[in-house]
């Protein structure tokens, strides 16, 4: 069973998702290629406070989507803030690279509200076809990596349906005081190499990943319910 493309399924943890390929932590004996150099990168501390600029530091336009009450995204205090209302809401910051995305990452921080629950998250994704939440057409993604202060979930999307590949809980909850964290995922063939925000690494495989080349990189801030953590983006990149 695959879950509908909504964070209710992704964050609720109630859907039993059938894994269609083996996945898990990579063997130390497996060869690892260095991640590709970013083709787009924006350092948000270099931008003055105000609305999000039309283009990233490399000149590629941002394409924005939102769901629910969203006042941003805005640059504030050296970071990009989605300005989510204190209820279910999402802000999608997208960049179209023109060819398949092989890497997407961010340096970011969680900040209170109160921020110790699974009700706030950052998602790194790559889209092909329609853009969520509501563009007409089919939404597909070879990667959809979510981190909350307490756990992470790696999925992909086929036919506007999310299917979980791997997940885990952090040994200790991530800080919610704005401490800079790094999350990054690189796709190589059927493999996703993940640098998690607690400083650990892992990997997962799914035969569907290479069949879903997606040109649009996405950084999504999401709040599932009142009080969920907020996300501050300090730097964003993709290749």
TrEMBL record:
PROSITE patterns assigned: PROKAR_LIPOPROTEIN, TAT
InterPro entries reported for this sequence: TAT_signal (IPR006311)
Domain of life, per lineage: Bacteria
Name assigned to this protein: Uncharacterized protein
């Amino acid at each position: 069973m695959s879950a509908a493309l909504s964070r209710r399924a992704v964050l609720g943890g109630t859907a039993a998702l059938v894994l269609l390929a083996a996945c898990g932590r990579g063997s130390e004996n497996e060869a690892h290629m260095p991640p590709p150099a970013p083709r787009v990168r924006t350092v948000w501390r270099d931008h003055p406070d105000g609305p999000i600029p039309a283009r990233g530091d490399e000149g590629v336009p941002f394409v924005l989507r939102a769901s629910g009450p969203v006042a941003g995204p805005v640059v504030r205090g050296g970071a990009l803030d989605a300005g989510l209302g204190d209820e279910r809401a999402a802000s999608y910051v997208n960049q179209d690279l023109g060819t398949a995305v092989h890497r997407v990452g961010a340096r970011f921080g969680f900040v209170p509200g109160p921020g110790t629950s699974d009700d706030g998250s950052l998602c790194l994704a790559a889209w092909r076809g329609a853009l969520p939440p509501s563009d007409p057409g089919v939404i597909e993604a070879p990667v959809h990596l979510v981190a909350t202060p307490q756990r992470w979930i790696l999925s992909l999307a086929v036919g506007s349906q999310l299917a979980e590949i791997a997940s885990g809980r952090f040994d200790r909850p991530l800080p919610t005081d704005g401490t800079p964290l790094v999350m990054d995922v690189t796709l190589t063939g059927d493999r996703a190499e993940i640098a998690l925000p607690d400083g650990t690494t892992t990997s997962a495989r799914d035969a569907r990943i290479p069949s879903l080349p997606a040109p649009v990189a996405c950084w999504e801030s999401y709040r599932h319910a009142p009080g969920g953590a907020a996300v501050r983006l300090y730097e964003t990149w993709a290749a």
